[in-house]
Amino acid sequence: MKPFNAGRAPVYARHGLACSSQPLAAAVGRDILRAGGNAVDAAVAMAAMVNLTEPMMNGLGGDCFALVRFDGEIFALNGSGRSGSRCTAEAIRAQGHSRMPKAGAATVTVPGALDGYLALHERFGSMDLADLVAPAVDYAEEGYPVGLKIAQVWHWGASKLQHFNTMPEAYLPGGRPPIAGDIFQQADLAATWRRIGRHGRAAFYGGPVRDAILDIVNSRGGFLEAVDFDTVQAEWVEPIRAKYRDHTVLELPPNGQGIVVLEALRILEDHDLKASFASDEAVASHLILEALKIAFADAERHVADPRFRQAPVERMLSDDYIATRRSLIDPARALDNPCAGRVYGDTTYLTVMDKDRNAVSLITSISDVFGSGLIVPGAGIVLHNRGADFELEDDHPNVAAPGKRVRHTILPAMLLDPAGEFTMTFGCMGANMQPQGQVQILVNLLDRGMNLQEALDAPRVRVLDGRRISAEAHADPRVAHKLAAMGHQVSVGDEIPQDWEAPHDFMRSFEGSAQAIAISGSALCGASDPRLDGIAVGY
Q1: CA distance 78 to 232
Q2: Active site residues
Q3: What is the pTM of this model?
Q4: Quick one: pLDDT band at residue 474, thresholds 50, 70, 90?
């Protein structure tokens, strides 16, 4: 018998399994499955719950992406909203900005998350929408205890709410962020979700809620019009895919950054990572970091709303192109390539699988900690700042323009085995850590032979910008020292800053939080990342 290991073990269940970074959300998903709901029903109920329990990370004011396996087929849903009718690079520059602001009304695009949830429910749901959102409504009215790690991020984002709202009490009760164990209630959000359960899309994209969003955004210099809310934001799209170690990885296409995962994996496939990790983990981590930097640079150059500019996805994944990009890696020295995408970012990933092995891989986000910072009065909605990722250079593929989807950071994933059979649903939250977490989880599983929980637990590295990286604490401190000797600038920042605008590496040092469910014979195997408060729970 091996010595006792106090770390987490994978969770096994026979019929259904739900994983979330928030325990109450995972429990709600499990309960929906036990009540006869399918994976999509459970995912919608969980999405409503994480809106309440992780409000600095996601919610009705944000976007979502999803991969769905249903009756043996896999579907992809882009639930990212479009920019306002008056949003142009010229209009933003006229406000005095030489680059996109980080928060505030100018960064608010039409929220797409609810359209995404409703599209999922309309196509695959089996239970009444009002019943699915009822647990979140009840918890919002009665209150729930705030988790330890979520309370820390809440504390960090409090200064943003105070900066952008004259009355931030909706999420700062008593004028302060809740601490772990405090009971948090949100009656306004409960009422909004209850109306959505009864009336669907019209309860958010029309009427008083829409008008309240328009009032606060446009009174602060935003670019939305009522007509922008009439367009359905969610869109069914075709997944993109690539092979790694004979497995097939599925991602969302642009405007998402799933291409980063696929390109990085293709670059790495020519390397014997199993041997590299066995001989020198720093060398293996260096290869992963360099592959990711190259893939990020390509995404920054090409990924945008495909209705405005098509990314050359097929070309970017072709053998000859991958070979040229792979040749850039110096096995002993860090590249200076700039990486793409937001370093900071708050997002929620959840996944669920039911007794028929239908599955949902869903990620939902308000982009940054408390998004734009704007709370919609009387609705309990925090609006995202997804538009902050637009560019202001007129010739850039991702330049701000009316009715345009921004280059997006969020990405759910699924995995097929070498026979082409569905085997796993997984994802990792955390801005530009999302593709990096996915790549390292797959390397841990397919190269290093770890079990599912070990693959999520293992120390990670993270590309930041230029040669800057972060590296988690490791049993072997020489790993970070060796990476530094290769030219990587290793950043740390574990203390929580007092101001969301303060230059600080607090969230840069966060290596994301992942969830995963895999088919294991006749059972399901689930894992939840210990980096947040989550659990995997089944029946």
Answers
A1: 11
A2: 347
A3: 0.95
A4: confident
